[in-house]
Amino acid sequence: MPWRDRYGASVFELNGVEMVGYLASALVVLSLTMTSVVRLRMVSLCGSITFFVYGTMIESVPIMITNGSIAVINVWFLRKEFASGGRHGRDLGVSRIRPDSPFLSDFVAFHLTDIHRFQPNFRLPTGDDVVTLLLNRDGLPAGLLIGRRSGSTLTIDLDYVLGPYRDSRLGRWLYGPGSEVFRSDGITELRSAGTTDFHCKYLERVGFRASPTDPDLYELTL
Predict the structure, then answer these.
(1) Closest CA to 42 of 73, 83, 87
(2) Phi and psi at residue 95, in whole multiples of 5°?
(3) CA distance 105 to 186
(4) Neighbour-count burial of 90, counting CB atoms closer than 10 A to its CB (0-12 exposed, 13-18 middle, 19+ buried)
């Protein structure tokens, strides 16, 4: 694709090899704009593979070695991200916190705008029936689950994960291997209202199914 001056002379021309190099550079830059850990590594993986191809085309061993190593590192961490808390997974966990905890009110207040993007009607509930769980990843707060208990049923008011960890399968872990936190407390059924299309799709991905009596209510038997 030639670039020409006003006299029609060719001043710059992009060949196929250069296009691959520019594409690789664009992918690396794009990866730095990602707020999600998983998306960052996936785009970075695409960039490093493209740079490896570019290095092969121009016969540059340093570029091939560097980007081949980066690709392996990205694959390693992505494998851990998608392992959902298994033997090779991230250190995912859940901790009980008091509903009147100052940390809880501060956490919700700070993230309320983002929370309302997915659950616009959420308000911090009060009462003796409130159950509050702090989701952790690598020992750091990564999300929050708040619900109201009635017998063995927990109706979820909030299931929220911080943006950088929204693709880390915390939800699948919580309602899968991590669901022991509910069963150990005698909770055998979970219910949640689908407040937005995004939230409904999320509930279906983590195992909930629409109630046969109320299509806006999703249920999961543990």
Answers:
(1) 73
(2) -130, 140
(3) 26
(4) buried
Predicted confidence (pLDDT) per residue in 65-119, tens digit: 999 999 999 898 888 776 654 444 457 888 899 988 999 999 999 999 999 988 8
- What is the pairing mode between strands 209-210 and 217-221? antiparallel
Q: Which residues 6+ apart lie within 8 Å of 204 measured at CB?
A: 218
At position 110, the amino acid (one-letter code) is F
Q: Assess contact for 133 and 104: CB atoms under 8 A.
A: no
Asked if 43 and 31 touch (Cβ cutoff 8 Å), the reply is yes
* Global confidence as pTM: 0.69
Residue for token pair 């279906």: 204
Among all chains, which residue has been given the structure tokens 């993986």? 45
- Residue 188 forms beta bridges with which residues? none
Euclidean distance between CA atoms 64 and 70, whole angstroms: 10
Q: Retrieve residue 39's tokens.
A: 């998306």
The structure tokens listed for 101 are: 């905890």
**42, exposed or middle or buried, with CB in 10 Å at 0-12, 13-18, 19+?**
middle
In this structure, what DSSP letter does residue 63 have?
Answer: H
* Residue type at 158 in one-letter notation: L
Domains and CATH numbers, the chain: 2-81 (no CATH), 92-221 (3.40.630.30)
Q: Could you give the CA distance from residue 156 to residue 3 in angstroms, rounded to a whole number?
A: 59
What percent of the chain has pLDDT above 90? 38
